[in-house]
Write a structure and sequence with these properties.
Blueprint: H1 2-29, E1 38-41, H2 42-52, H3 54-59, E2 63-68, E3 73-76, H4 78-94, E4 101-110, E5 113-120, H5 154-165, E6 168-174, E7 178-186
Parallel strand pairs: 2-4
Antiparallel strand pairs: 1-3, 4-5, 5-7, 6-7
Length: about 190
Amino acid sequence: DAPILEKNLSEIDHLISLTNDLLLIARFDARTNVMVRNRMSMSDLVREVISNFEIKARAKNICINCDSESGIDIYADISLMKRVVYNLISNAIKYSGNGTRVEVKLYKTREDHFELVIRDEGIGIPGDKLPNIFERFYRVAEDRNKSIEGTGLGLSIVKSITDAHGFRISVESEINKGTVFVVSGSVFY
């Protein structure tokens, strides 16, 4: 029966994703060198990740606005930085309602630093919960978000990756108005 097979395949994909997340966390905990740093274009990476979300955003009638400066290169592990951008945009879409907007901006704040800003018009995060969102397995008000799948590992992984690169991540949020994540760090010369 096709629907049963599709559900099983979805569960298998979820378990593979969870296993990969746990393996990555274990490597960070063991301080195993998990990064292969090279010069990479953050500008190209942001545009590539956004293009991967076009169908998912369209399904919820969410408009993704991208304002990405060209020529912003950083010294980083491309697959890990892709995961950071992917997780943050995925969350922005996941926690936003139909017909809302997600804004992604990448720009230089000064000659030697960049900022990546991801802003949504979603359900928001209560102020007293913000200090906990980067903890492993933490989910905000699960009773409010039962229909939204997740393991509570995504933001923990994002924090581990940004910390390992020497980048900074911050968050601001307001209930029923949305959330803004900002990743900042040094550009490559």
